[in-house]
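Try it yourself: sequence plus zinc ion, in.
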Amino acid sequence: MSADALFSDAVARAVLADAPAAHAEHLCCRFCGSDAAGTRECCLRVAERHAVGRTWTNFRAVCCRRCYRRGVTLERARLAATAWLWAWAVAGPALLVIVVQASGAPLDTAAVAAAVVVGFVAPVLLYRAFAARRMAALLGTDRDARLRRRAGVTGWGVTTAFGFRPAVPPREMSAPLDGV
Ligand SMILES: [Zn+2]
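Structure, out:
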């Protein structure tokens, strides 16, 4: 290898080594516009549940730590609501059976039946309202609607899975959030 080739190879490596740091300084959060420390590339993924599995739609974006945390909090709230619904699907009817066997009074039964229904409906409605507000705050109302259309999801309910990840999962396709 000639001296020139060695030199250009060394320069290329030095440029590549410096590139991420220099690039990171100018990253700007696509959700809130912040360029605070820790702002980095991330992946917002969305999926509606199908009969068999899910098909994720990935959007590449740049995200500050605060927006990333807000997205992760919403993801955890959905998982908590889903876990509650599964647990209540067992506990709710069991509670009703216990009350019917112990008391049998129509008023007690009706009250517990109403509580069982509320136990199913309340988390769904509360999560939907929370998710709609937070996603509109993160994305803006117009981009929120465009993103949902693009990902093929009707709304931010408990059946609409989404997540924030540090990077696009391996072997999955992605599109830039800027194009949405
Ligand atoms: Zn942000």
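One thing you can check immediately is this: Residues 3-179 form one domain.
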